[in-house]
Design brief:
Layout (H helix, E strand, L loop, with lengths): L1 E2 L44 H4 L4 E2 L8 H11 L3 H11 L9 H14 L2 H15 L11 H7 L5 E8 L4 H14 L1 E12 L1 H16 L3 E5 L2 H8 L10 H14 L2 H15 L18 H7 L7 E8 L5 H10 L4 E12 L1 H16 L3 E7 L1 H9 L7 E4 L2
Parallel strand pairs: 1-2, 3-4, 4-5, 6-7, 7-8, 8-9
Helix pairs in contact: 2-3, 2-15, 3-4, 4-5, 4-15, 7-8, 8-10, 9-10, 10-11
Length: about 400
C-alpha cells in the first residue's frame, strides 16, 4: 500500500456539483490550528520506510519536515523511545530554525512519557523563543493514569431478587455514587422476578444518567435463567425482557441479543433497545473522568481515549454511526494517547466520506504527537484539528 507522506497532499474526493450549485457551508473545514503550525526543520534521513513497517513510502513533502514526520510515525508504531531520541536531536536547545510545531511535539512527548525533568529543562527555551506561555506540566504517561485509577468497589448479589430488594439496590446506588462507580457480581443470583427486574433497571438507568460507571460481572448464567421466564408472543414480564437484553449486552453476546430483540419487538410491538457492547467498558472508576471530557450536555460530542489501534477499530465504527444523523461532530481527544497508522488511515477515509456529505468534524484537544501523524495523513485537510493546551 503506497501512502504519499512527502509528496503533494492528495485532494480528498468531493461530490460533483453543477457550475452554479453552491456547496454546503460545512463541506470544507475551517482553517485548522494544526495546518497553521510551523514544523520546519532540516532533513534527518533515518529511513521512514522502515519505521512504517510494511507500508511503502513515496518521496515528496508533507510540509512538516522529514524528521518530524518520522518521529510521528515512530510514535504511532509504538516506538516512543526512538521518536524521543529523534526529536531531541532535531530540536536545538536554543536558536535554530525549528518551528513551533516541532517544539510542541517534543514537549508533549515528554508529558506522554512522564519525563518531567526533561520537560522542565526545555520548556523555558520554548517560552523564550516563541515569547508566549509554554504548556504546563501534566503527567500523561500510562503509569500516572494507573496510579490515579483504583478499582471500583465490588458488590456480590445472591439469592432471589424481588421488589423487596429495593433497599439493597438503594445501598448499591449510594456506594456507586460515593465511589464514582461500582462492580456487581451476579454469579450467585438464582432468579429475579419481574418487579425485581424493574427495580434493578431503574437503578442502572439512574446511574447511567448520572454518568456513574457500572460493570455487571458473570452475567451469562443469570441471562439463561431470565431467558427461560420469557416467551415470544406472550406480552408479559416486560421488565424481565428488558433486563435480559441488558444482561446480554454486558455479556457481549450480540448474536443472542439480536435474536431476543426480534422476539421482544414481535411480542410488545415496539422497538427493542439498540445493541451496545458493554462487555468491553472501561473500569467504572474511570467513568467520571470520561464523562467530564465528553461534554455530556453537548449532543454533538464524541470522545477518543486511550490508544486507537488495529483494523476494524470499534471506536471509529461508533464515530461513523454517531455522525450519521448529525451535521457536525466535536471529538474530544484529551484522553487519546496514540493512534496507529491503520486507524489513522481508517479515520481519514471516514472523514472524507463525512465531508462529502456536507458534515463538519472537529478533533479538539489533540496531543502534538498524534497531531503530527494526522498532518502526515492529511486528516487536517478533511477535519478541523486543534491541539490540547
Amino acid at each position: 500500500m503506497a501512502l504519499p507522506f512527502f509528496g503533494k497532499r492528495p485532494a480528498p474526493p468531493r461530490p460533483a456539483a453543477a457550475p452554479e450549485e453552491r456547496r454546503p457551508a460545512a463541506e470544507n473545514p475551517p482553517p485548522t490550528e494544526l495546518s497553521g503550525l510551523d514544523f520546519s526543520a532540516s532533513d534527518h534521513g533515518r529511513g521512514l520506510a522502515q519505521a512504517a513497517g510494511q507500508l511503502e513510502v513515496q518521496e515528496g513533502g508533507s510540509g512538516i519536515g522529514a524528521a518530524f514526520e518520522e518521529a510521528a510515525v515512530l510514535y504511532a508504531n509504538g516506538n516512543e523511545g526512538d521518536a524521543l531520541a529523534l526529536l531531541e536531536a532535531a530540536v536545538p536547545s536554543e536558536g535554530g530554525a525549528v518551528g513551533e510545531g516541532a517544539w510542541l511535539m517534543l514537549l508533549d512527548l515528554y508529558r506522554l512519557g512522564g519525563h518531567q525533568r526533561r520537560f522542565e529543562s526545555r520548556v523555558l527555551d520554548y517560552a523564550t523563543r516563541f515569547e508566549r506561555s509554554p504548556p504546563s506540566w501534566e503527567d500523561l504517561s500510562p503509569a500516572a493514569g494507573k496510579a490515579k485509577t483504583s478499582l471500583a468497589p465490588l458488590i456480590n448479589l445472591n439469592g432471589q431478587l424481588s421488589a423487596a430488594a429495593g433497599k439493597q439496590f438503594g445501598q448499591i446506588a449510594a456506594i456507586a455514587r460515593r465511589n464514582g462507580g461500582v462492580r456487581i457480581d451476579v454469579s450467585k443470583v438464582r432468579g429475579v422476578d419481574d418487579a425485581g427486574c424493574g427495580v434493578w433497571r431503574r437503578l442502572l438507568a439512574e446511574l447511567a444518567a448520572e454518568r456513574i460507571g457500572v460493570t455487571l460481572l458473570n452475567v451469562q448464567s443469570l441471562a439463561d435463567v431470565l431467558s427461560q421466564r420469557v416467551e415470544a408472543g406472550r406480552a408479559e414480564a416486560r421488565d424481565t425482557w428488558l433486563m435480559l437484553l441488558e444482561l446480554l449486552q454486558y455479556a457481549g453476546d450480540q448474536v443472542r441479543f439480536e435474536d431476543r430483540a426480534v422476539d421482544y419487538a414481535v411480542t410488545f410491538e415496539e422497538s427493542p433497545p439498540s445493541w451496545e457492547n458493554r462487555a468491553g467498558l472501561p473500569p467504572p472508576a474511570e467513568a467520571p473522568a470520561v464523562a467530564a471530557q465528553s461534554a455530556p450536555n453537548d449532543p454533538d460530542g464524541f470522545v477518543f481515549e486511550g490508544e486507537l489501534t488495529g483494523a476494524g477499530n470499534e471506536t471509529l465504527k461508533r464515530l461513523a454511526a454517531f455522525a450519521s444523523d448529525r451535521r457536525q461532530v466535536r471529538v474530544d481527544c484529551a484522553r487519546l494517547r496514540r493512534i496507529d497508522f491503520v486507524c489513522a488511515g481508517t479515520l481519514f477515509n471516514i472523514l472524507v466520506t463525512l465531508q462529502a456529505q456536507g458534515k463538519l468534524v472537529s478533533l479538539v484537544n489533540v496531543n502534538a504527537m498524534v497531531a503530527g501523524l494526522l498532518r502526515v495523513m492529511s486528516v487536517d485537510q478533511v477535519a478541523h484539528v486543534t491541539l490540547r493546551p
